[in-house]
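Q: How would the structure tokens look for this protein?
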Amino acid sequence: MTSRRKFIKKSAVTLGAITIVPSHVLFAKNEIRNTLGKIIRAASVVPSDKINMAFCGIGNRGGSDLRSFNKTGLVNTTVLCDVDMGAPHTTENMKAYPKAKRYQDFREMFDKSGKEFDAVCAGTPDFSHFSIAVLSMSQGKHVYVEKPLTRTFNESEILIKAAKKYKVATQMGNQGHSEGNYFQFKAWVEAGIIKDVTKITAHMNGKRRWHAWDTNMKTFPKGQPIPETLDWDTWLMTAQHHDYQKDFVNGQWRCWYDFGMGALGDWGAHIIDTAHQFLELGLPFEVDPIKIEGHNTLFYPQASTLAFKFPERGKMPPVTITWYDGINNIPAVPEGYGKLKVDPNIPPVNGEVKPTKLGAGKIIYSKDLTFKGGSHGSTLSIIPEEKAKEMESKLPKVPVSPSNHFENFVKAAKGEEKTLSPFEISGPLSQVFCLGVLAQKLNTKIKFDRNTKQITNNKIANELLVGTPPRKGWEEFYKL
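A: Here is the predicted structure in token form.
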């Protein structure tokens, strides 16, 4: 077996000689040839067949993805990979697919079984998405990556370019982007129902894992014995060394700036995704941390309010998206919002009322209409109710989704559809979150040049667009 480092380097050289073709062409042939005409990998599927998939991360969210892909009836699960193959949340899924090859290190998976799968699902912690995704694409594999796409701005930039270079199907796992809200938002923009939007309120006020933590914490928690079944070194991937801690794994990674993207990265992809795409927002020129409650440089705030400011785009006016997270950091909503409990001690101000509780969602304010919506695929409503009734006859027919998010990806890998959340769309969205996280971590306003893609008012923040250097031995992933 080649060493891991030699394998990565060999991959980069070999792929330079491959003639990359669109997936619909690739899967219509029986083989893939390099520029010299030599067969380097037989295509294992044609459009009428299932595709073979490898799953990196098979517990918790990754396990849910595994089950969802198999429910489509369009995939063969040929390889399972997880850094802990002895944990309760992974062993159950291994039993369901006894014939699948098993690995703890995705690099070894590619080394030994790379010819046995055509697509990869990365259902791992935020910070580890990049390495799996970029290696998959460089090997000609279609790749599905859970949201948010990456932990740093630069990693998303690399993945956007790699997807274009390698011409494989890509999809980020914001599942609602293949459901009702996507098709409704698109139809309403095209029909001129949603137009002249000037501000959006986005909110997620549920309890988060770190909300009970001591905000005066100055150092990471002390290390603990590594579970016998866990490959901790591979779990760390590109991250700088940390001693094992139970508060770093099994979902706890989302709490820490070193590993996760907090509430914004977790829920933003389900709340502002359609507005970002169909209002053509791109990247903000400023992110203002209006409120950071319980600031800590190690983990996320107890509550935050961030204003993302986007410029004019053609004939569309500037837009400000104001993001609210935190249990009690609930935004005001317009009168006529609908059924909710309102704090009796806070009178209405400028036509807005302060609810005592609010689920995850958004309020979109345009010149003539106001819309409210939830998260994921939930559709928008026009408010107040009287205005909705007035507009009812003017609303266009909304197409029904032809396939869910998982089917959409598989069919794109077979050349039958195009993915709805490819990296060219989900990458810039994730970069918006990366800029927001920098404003949270540094507790400072970010001024961003959309043309040069540089932060112009803070040297440290600008350096963090790239982030800390990867651990020794992981540098090669940034060169693929």
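Residues 4-177+413-423+470-479 form a domain with the Rossmann fold fold (CATH 3.40.50.720).

Residues 423-442 form the longest helix (20 residues).

Upvote if useful.
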